[in-house]
Amino acid sequence: MSAFRTRRRVLTAALSLALLAGCASTRLEGTWTNPALRADPIGGPVLVVGVARDDIVRRTYEDAMAAQLAARGIGATPSYAVLTGPLTARSDAQLLDAAKQAGARHVLSTAVIGQEREQVISQEPAPFVGFGGYGRWYNAWWGLSYPVRTEVRSYPVYVAQTSLTDVGSDQLRWTARTRTTDPRDIDQETRAFVDLIVAAMTEAKLLAAPAR
Q1: Number of domains present in the structure of the chain
Q2: Shortest CA distance to 115 belongs to which of 161, 57, 152?
Q3: What is the sign, positive or negative, of the torsion defined by CA atoms of 205, 199, 180, 106?
Q4: Do both 144 and 42 map to the same domain?
Q5: pLDDT at position 105, please?
Q6: Are residues 125 and 199 in the same domain?
Q7: What are the beta bridge partners of residue 50?
Q8: Mean pLDDT computed over every residue of the chain
Q9: pLDDT digits (tens, 9 = 90+) for 148-195
Q10: Are 91 and 169 found together in one domain?
Q11: 87 vs 76: CA distance, rounded Å
Q12: What CATH number should be reported for the domain holding residue 59?
C-alpha cells in the first residue's frame, strides 16, 4: 500500500477543517522530515488540499495557503479548482490524477484527525457582607471567605495533520501535527493556522523567505 494511500485514508476520516484555529489557540506539537530526501526548498507547482465537509472552509483554507505559497514564489492550485464536491468521497487515484493534471509536483494536505476536550478549573473565594459595631447602625463591609467558588470550563481541542507529499515518487516529505483549542472566528483562525504551518515549513527549510 502506497504511503500516499495510507495517509489519504487517515485524512478522509477527518473532521471538518472548519475547526482549525489561529496562533493564539493553536500550537505545533511536532514535525517530521523525511531523512531520505534532501531538505531543500520545494519548487512548485503544489496542489493544496483541505479535507473539509464545509466547502466555504475548504476554499478559505486552500486560498489562504495558495496565497502564502505564491508569496514564496511557488505556484499553487487549490484543489477545489480541479476537484468539485466533497474530498472525503474521492479515491487516492483521483487525487493523484488531479495533482498530475494540475502539473503539481507536491500535494500539501491538511485535515483534523482527532477531537478531545480540555477542562480548566478555577477557584476563588465567594464574596460576603460583614458587619461590625452595635451603635445606631451597623458598619458593613465586603470581604472574601470560604467556601471557594469553583468554575469549570470545558473547551474542544482538535488535532490536525498537515502533510507534504512528492507526487512523482509518492513519498511523504514532511508532516506536522497541531493542537487547536476552542476555535471561534473561522476565517481569521484558519488564516492564522496557515501562517503557523508556513512558518514551520520555512523553519524546516522547505520554503524560501517571502519575495520582497
Answers
A1: 2
A2: 161
A3: negative
A4: no
A5: 93
A6: no
A7: 110
A8: 76
A9: 667 777 777 888 899 999 998 888 999 999 988 877 777 888 888 999
A10: yes
A11: 18
A12: 3.40.50
pLDDT tens for 98-144 read 888 888 999 999 988 887 776 667 666 655 555 444 444 344 444 54
The answer to whether residues 117 and 25 touch, using CB atoms and an 8 Å cutoff, is: no
Write the DSSP string, 107-174.
EEEEEEEEEEEEEEEEEEEEEEEEEE--SSS-EEEEEEEEEEEEEEEEEEEEEEEEEEEETTTTEEEE
Q: Is residue 166 part of a domain?
A: yes
132, 104: one domain: no
| pLDDT, tens digit (0-9, with 9 covering 90-100), for 29-58 | 999 999 988 778 888 899 999 987 788 888
Bridge partners (DSSP) of residue 47 are 77, 107
Task: Please choose, from the candidates 156, 154, 175, 179, the residue with its C-alpha nearest in 3D space to the C-alpha of residue 165.
Answer: 175
pLDDT of residue 199: 94
Q: How many CA atoms lie within 13 A of 112 on its CB side?
A: 27
- Residue 59 and residue 98: Cα distance in Å, rounded? 17
DSSP conformational letter for 23: T
Q: Are residues 101 and 196 in the same domain?
A: yes
CA dist., res. 140 & res. 129, Å (int): 7
Report which residue type is found at 10.
V
Show the domain range for 79. 3-115+157-203
Q: Which residue has the cell 503544489?
A: 46
